[in-house]
Amino acid sequence: MKMNILHISKICALAGALLLAIPQAKAQQVTVDAKIDSLQLLIGEQAKVTLEVSMDANQKLQLPILSDTLVRGVEVLDIAKPDTQMLNEGKRMLIQQEYTITSFDSALYYLPPFEVLVNDQAYRSQALALKVYSIPVDTLNPDQFFGPKPIREAGIEWQDISTIFWLTLLMVALGGLGYYLYKRFKDNKPIIRKIKVEPKLPPHTQALQDIERIKEDKHLRMTDPKAYYTELTDVLRTYMAERFGFNAMEMTSSEIIDNLLETNDKESIKELKYLFETADLVKFAKHSPLMNENDMNLVNAVEFINNTKVEPDPNAKPEPTEITIEEKRSKQGRMVLLGSMIAIGVAILVILFLVSKGIYNLI
Asked: C-alpha distances in angstroms, 97 versus 37, 81, 82, 242?
């Protein structure tokens, strides 16, 4: 009886150890599976082969390294990037590797098992089979097949000749320009230029026009007497310089009056003297003349010009309004013409080549 109890206890201990070892064995289990999405293909069609490896997360996996041929007659077109999924709260991994295959020979192919290494230990998947069919040909009805169709000539459209047209137009324009430059180069005629000359107004006419402009600027007389008298005396100085021949622009007011006294009586320049004295007071002493004083000085300036003006001689020969100048073409100008003709000639040759090439391709 005692021996039986001891035997039973040993059996129970052994069973318990086996039960404890079963989960650990399952935890270390590696499964390798291979499947194909189509067992039958026509020549040239493609199939997907999927390799699945299930293993513990802490194990190291090495997938098979394939060349461009799986077996003779079955080609590997593409190997996708492995896809990894974590299972059992990160304790297990499922790795999927997809291969794209095809075949161009009709036959029944045996696809050998895929071999992977997990912790340097080899595991294999099951083998696969692939049947490749050729395209059936109905040899009993050859009239259903047609030979190659005859070549049809396509019509010429605008886009086919537009480049040729515009290049030809450009070539003609360049040819015309080149001919014109050649004629100028060969003739070597002088360059004729015509310059328009604006007729110069008499001094008193110009002065009266300037005074009229000052008169119309009422704002200038009312707000800025210094600028008003400066413009008015400048007009008079310019008139005196052209009318009497002395440099009034560079003289003081007293020097101008002294020069005028030599050629005019005192009464004729009495009012003009008052105008210059007022202008000096305004410009240098900040004098503020009254409005009627400004108007009176402007009238005095007009009267002085009218009293001293010299009318042009009606019998005098009128001044020319246009001057013609002839210049001989310089050596540099002839070189420019020659260089331009050479450049145009080269451009025409290039365009002619492009047009000829376009016509040749069109034909």
From this structure: 14, 7, 5, 107
